[in-house]
Specification:
The chain has about 400 residues and is an alpha/beta fold. It has two domains: about 1-55 and about 160-225 and about 325-399, FAD/NAD(P)-binding domain; about 60-160 and about 230-320, D-Amino Acid Oxidase, Chain A, domain 2. The chain has helices at about 20-30, 60, 70-75, 75-85, 110-125, 165-175, 275-280, 285-300, 350-365; strands spanning about 5-15, 35-40, 100, 105, 130, 155, 160, 180, 195, 205-210, 225-235, 245-250, 260-265, 270-275, 310-320, 335-340, 340-345. The strands form three sheets. Strands 5-6-4-12-13-14-11-15 form an eight-stranded mixed β-sheet, with helices on both faces. β13 (about 260-265) and β14 (about 270-275) form a beta hairpin. It is elongated. It binds flavin-adenine dinucleotide. Flavin-adenine dinucleotide binds near residues 40, 184 and 220. Flavin-adenine dinucleotide (FAD) binds near residues 15, 52, 53, 233 and 317.
Length: about 400
C-alpha cells in the first residue's frame, strides 16, 4: 500500500458511469454540488452501450390498452432530451447526436396487430401519428416501401440517440469530475472509498453521500434487492439490409414483436440491432436457434428482402432493476437507501433525468448542501474511456 494518502471530501461520490451516473453527475454539478463519479471499466460499459437508444415516449407501455404508470412517467422524456440536445437545458448535450428523429411503429396485415395499434393510437394521442398517404411514399421507412407491404406505419415521438455520443458529451464536459478506478469500487465501513490506480498515489474519498449507479454492480451492496432480466439481442449486417430502420413491429401482445434500430459499425457498415419480443423470448434459445428465429422473423415481416446473404451475431445481457414482487418491469426509476448510501436504477436509459431528480431530493432530505469542492488533487488521474458498441466487439461470432 502506498505511504501517501490524500483525503478528498466530496458531497456525493457516484459509483458507476453508465447513463444514470453520468446524468446524475451533470445534474449535481450544475446545482453546485461537489460530485465525483468513479468508473472501474469504461463509461457505459454495462447496459448503456448496449441500449437501442430509443427515448421512449410511452407507446411501448400503452399497447395493452391502458395508460400505465410507466407511460405517464416517460411521456415527458422525448421533449426533455430534445431540449438538452439543443443546449436549452442546464444539462447541455449539444455534443451528442440523434440517429433518428422518430422511431416508427408498424403493423402487419394481421387483424390483431391492427387492433393493438388502434388502441395505442387513441391512448397516445399527439404522440403517435399515422403516416398518412398524403405525406407521400418518402415518409415511410425505405425498408417498408414495397408493394407487398400490407400494414400501417405510425410515427412515434421517440428520438433515437447515438448512445456513445451522449456518453462522450458528458465525459468531455465533466472530465475533471470523472475518475477511473482499478477494480470495482467498494465502500469501507467508515463510509470512505479508496481510489486505486497503478502508478498513482491512493486517493481516499470521504463523501457526504455515496450513490451507486453501478447497474448490475449495485448487488455489491448487501442490503440491495435487485432483479436481473435477460435479453438475447441479435445483430444483422450485410449489403442486403434495406436501409436504416428505426421501428417497432406490433404483434398481438403488449410487447413489440420486434424492435429494430440501425447503426454503423467502425468499418462504416450498416448494422440492424434487433430487440423486442425476439430478444425477450430468445433467452430460451442458444445462439444458433436465436439466429434461426431472427431469420424466420425477418423473412415473415419483410419477405421482399433476400435475407440469405445477411450475417448475424447474438449476445445476451442482463437488465438490472430494483426487485419487483412479480419480477416484471418496474414502473419507473428506483431509488433505495441505507443511511447515507443510495442504490439507484433508471429502469430505462430514457428515464435517467427522472432518476437524477429523485436522487437530488434524497440529498436534500439528508441535508446535503452544495459546497464548492476542489478536485485539483485528481488532476492527471486516469479517466475512463467510452465503452465499445456491441457491433464493434471482436468477441462476437458472425455467421
Ligand atoms: C439490450 C438493451 C437495450 C436497451 N434499450 C433501451 C432503449 O432503447 N431505451 C431505453 O430507454 N433503455 C434501454 N435499455 C435500458 C437501459 O440500457 C438501462 O436502463 C440503462 O442503460 C441503465 O443504466 P445504468 O447507468 O443504471 O447502468 P449501466 O449502464 O449498467 O452502468 C453501470 C456502470 O457501473 C460500472 N460499475 C459497476 N460496478 C461498479 C463498481 N463497483 N465500481 C465502479 N464502477 C462500477 C459499470 O462498469 C458500468 O459502466 C436497454 C437495455 C438493454 C440491456
Amino acid at each position: 500500500m502506498s505511504a501517501i494518502q490524500r483525503i478528498l471530501n466530496v458531497d456525493a461520490a457516484i459509483v458507476g458511469g453508465g447513463i444514470a451516473g453520468l446524468w446524475l453527475l451533470a445534474r449535481l454539478r450544475e446545482r453546485g454540488y461537489g460530485a465525483l463519479l468513479i468508473e472501474s471499466e469504461r463509461l457505459g460499459a454495462g447496459q448503456t452501450i448496449c441500449a437501442q437508444g430509443i427515448v421512449h415516449g410511452g407507446a411501448k407501455y400503452s399497447l395493452h390498452g391502458q395508460v400505465s404508470r410507466s407511460a405517464e412517467a416517460v411521456a415527458g422524456m422525448p421533449a426533455l432530451w430534445r431540449r438538452c440536445l439543443r443546449g436549452e437545458d442546464p444539462i447541455d448535450l449539444r455534443g451528442a447526436r440523434l440517429l433518428a428523429e422518430h422511431q416508427h411503429l408498424w403493423t402487419t396485415g394481421a387483424p390483431i396487430s391492427r387492433l393493438a395499434a388502434f388502441f395505442a393510437s387513441k391512448l397516445m394521442h399527439g404522440r403517435m401519428d399515422k403516416v398518412a398517404d398524403a405525406e407521400g411514399a418518402h415518409a415511410v421507412p425505405v425498408a417498408l416501401r414495397h408493394p407487398a407491404f400490407r400494414g400501417t406505419v405510425y410515427r412515434l415521438d421517440e428520438p433515437v440517440l447515438e448512445v456513445a455520443s451522449v456518453l462522450a458529451a458528458f465525459a468531455e464536459r465533466y472530465r475533471d469530475a470523472i475518475a477511473r478506478s482499478q477494480g470495482p469500487v467498494t465502500l469501507k465501513a467508515d463510509g470512505t472509498i479508496t481510489l486505486h490506480c497503478a502508478g498513482y498515489p491512493q486517493q481516499v474519498l470521504r463523501p457526504a453521500v455515496t450513490v451507486f449507479t453501478a447497474g448490475a454492480g449495485n448487488i455489491g451492496l448487501p442490503w440491495v434487492a435487485q432483479q436481473l432480466r435477460p435479453l438475447h439481442m441479435v445483430l444483422a449486417r450485410g449489403v442486403n439490409l434495406p436501409g436504416p430502420l428505426y421501428a417497432h413491429c406490433l404483434g398481438a401482445s403488449d410487447l413489440p414483436r420486434l424492435t429494430v434500430t440501425s447503426h454503423y459499425d467502425a468499418g462504416g457498415r450498416l448494422v440492424w440491432y434487433l430487440g423486442g419480443g425476439l430478444a425477450e423470448e430468445g433467452i430460451k434459445r442458444d445462439r444458433h436457434e436465436q439466429i434461426r428465429a431472427a431469420r424466420r422473423e425477418l423473412s415473415a415481416l419483410l419477405p421482399w428482402v433476400d435475407w440469405n446473404p445477411v450475417e448475424f451475431a447474438t449476445f445476451t445481457i442482463q437488465r438490472a432493476e430494483a426487485q419487483q414482487p412479480d419480477g416484471g418491469r418496474p414502473a419507473g426509476p428506483s431509488v433505495s437507501r441505507d443511511r447515507r448510501v443510495i442504490a439507484a436504477w433508471p429502469t430505462k436509459l430514457a428515464l435517467a433525468p427522472l432518476l437524477a431528480e429523485q436522487i437530488e431530493e434524497v440529498l436534500r432530505s439528508l441535508d446535503v448542501r452544495p459546497r464548492p469542492t476542489d478536485l485539483r488533487a485528481l488532476t492527471g488521474w486516469p479517466r475512463p474511456e467510452i465503452a465499445v458498441y456491441p457491433w464493434d466487439r471482436d468477441d462476437l461470432e458472425w455467421s
